[in-house]
Amino acid sequence: LEALAMGLFVISSKSNGGSEILNSQNGAIIDDLRSTQSIQTALNQAFYKTKESAIQIRSSIAHLDFGKQLQKLIKLCV
After folding, report:
1. What is the pLDDT of residue 48?
2. Whole-prediction pTM value?
């Protein structure tokens, strides 16, 4: 989540809990870590990101911002 907040493209395995928030816009999920082709494909996706991509990546998790999550929690407790 922290890497995404910085606009970085994230590569993760499917068994990592962080993979739940990844999509084709902000990251890549590798199903089989023994597959060099899967790893190569994910790395190629990461290498071709631009400044505009970084802005989109940050936007893709804006709804998970701590302040917004805190407001939701407070509303649930009231």
Report:
1. 86
2. 0.77
